[in-house]
Amino acid sequence: MVKATDRIWLKEYQPGVPADIATDTYASIADLLDQSVNKFRDRCAFECMGTQISYDDLDRLSQDFASYLQNVLGLHRGDRVALMMPNLLQYPVALFGVLRAGLVAVNVNPLYTPRELEHQLNDSGARVIVIFESVARTLQEIIGRTRIESVITTQIGDLAPFPRGLVMNVVVKYVKKMVPAWDIVGALPFRTALARGKAQPYSRAALTQADIAFLQYTGGTTGLSKGATLTHGNVVANLLQNRAWMTVLKEGEEIVITALPLYHIFALVVNALLFMSLGGKNVLITNPRDLPGFVKELARHRFTAFTGVNTLFNGLLNTPGFDQLDFSPLKLAMGGGAAVQKAVAERWKAVTKKPLSEGYGLSETSPVLTTAPQHRPDWNGSIGLPLSSTIISIRDDEGRELPQGEPGELCAKGPQVMQGYWQKPEENKKAFTADGYFRTGDIAVMDERGYFKIVDRKKDMILVSGFNVYPNEIEAVIALCPGVLECACIGIADEKSGEAVKVFVVKKDPALTEDTVRAHCQKNLTGYKIPKLIAFIDAIPKSNVGKILRKDLRGK
Question: What is residue 481's predicted lDDT score, i.e. its pLDDT?
Answer without folding.
Answer: 96
